[in-house]
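[09:14] KT: can someone run the structure on this one? pasting the chain below
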Amino acid sequence: MAQFVGEEIGASSWTVIDQLRIDAFADCTGDHQWIHVDAVRAAKETPFGGTIAHGFLVLSLVAATAEELLLSRLTVKQILNYGLDRVRFLAPVRAGKRVRNRIRVVALEDKGGGRHLLTTECTFEIEDEEKPALQAVSLVMLVA
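[09:31] RB: done, structure tokens below
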């Protein structure tokens, strides 16, 4: 990963954020705000024409989408989610849209004992939209 510091390593596959996924996330978190789960009301009362995904739903995709891009480049025993340094929610994701994660390697820090702390910047693009859904700085512990 050291050779990728400062570089984008690619974009994940597209993930559909449909109403079933939004509803499942609402059930999991207990966050049933109408703007997420009431399609009829959201179509009438929002400028989005329907429901939007929870920001944290999109954020929850960081690990899975990063794994897709990292596993092909690494030979490690474990990849552990270590935290987030910064998250900014920039645009809502309307139900039915697709998102993908563009990852740029920010830093790789040797922590000793075969462990390295990988810092990446994740930008979730929304298909056919200029503004991304979110940007986050993710911390991942790589264990050799």
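[09:33] KT: thanks! The mean pLDDT is 95.
[09:34] RB: yep, looked fine to me
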